Amino acid sequence: MTSAPTVDGRSARAQRTRDSVVNAVLELANSGQVRPTAREIAERAGISVRSVYVHFDDLDDLFRAAAARHFEQMSTLLQPVDAGLPLEQRITAAADQRVAIHENFGAVRRAAEQWAPLSPALADVLRTGREVSRQDIERLFGAVLTGRADHDIALGALTLLLGANAWDSLREQGLSMDAASEIIVHTMTRLLEQT
After folding, report:
1. How confident is residue 195, by pLDDT bands cut at 50, 70 and 90?
2. Could you tell me the fold of the domain covering 3-56?
3. What is the separation of C-alpha 158 from the centre of its chain, rounded to a whole number of angstroms?
4. Contact between residue 94 and residue 162 where contact means Cβ atoms under 8 Å apart
5. Mind listing the pLDDT tens digit for each residue in 7-62?
6. Which residues of 96-128 are buried (b: 16+ CB within 10 A; e: fewer)?
């Protein structure tokens, strides 16, 4: 009868430790450390390196847990844009959504891209994210492109425009968020207005 609280206490401590390790990974990535070591992760979490591996099978297991937490944090930004909006509003809403995602979560994505060649879990998360993004763009703008000879090219261009690499490139040019967003909206509008 006295063992239940002990087990519950251990489970709670183990979950707190797992959470602190996952949070440490995301905090390090957000601070610009795209390839933190197990030692850096442990130091940020306030535990020993050995404890990292007690709670996670390997770094891939840890990265899978961090990716799941990351998507929880992004959930409010991942609500689908209404495909029934007028085209101009749909373009602006889609651009605003992607800009918010890239600005707020770009550091974690860049860290995941650095680790992906060594992490099947992260490679899969990134691949799935790109596919979901492309499907969402087709959901939003596919009807506008129906019947166009350049359907696939235009869809690819929209995917590129709303993607992380285009956003990073615009921001690296020193453009403000507003100026970079204006370029994306303007280019999408021109692309979708073509007959």
Report:
1. low
2. Arc Repressor Mutant, subunit A (1.10.10)
3. 18
4. yes
5. 577 788 888 888 899 999 889 988 888 788 888 999 999 998 888 888 888 878 88
6. ebbbebbeebebbbebbeebbeebebbbebbee
DSSP states of 149-180? TTHHHHHHHHHHHHSHHHHHHHHHTT--HHHH
- Domain layout of the chain by residue ranges: 3-56, 74-193
The pTM for the full model equals 0.79
Burial 151-168 (b: 16+ CB within 10 A, else e): eeebbebbbebbbbebbe
Supply 76's token pair.
């409010």
Tokens of 123: 């490679």
Nearest-Å Rg of the Cα atoms of the chain is: 21
Tokens found for residue 183: 């370029």
Cα(171)–Cα(94) distance, integer angstroms: 18
- Residue 91 has which token pair? 């373009």
CA distance 184 to 153: 17
End-to-end CA distance of the chain: 75
176 phi-psi bin (left φ>0, alpha ψ -120 to 50, beta other): beta
Q: Which token pair is 121?
A: 């879990």
| pLDDT, the chain, mean | 89
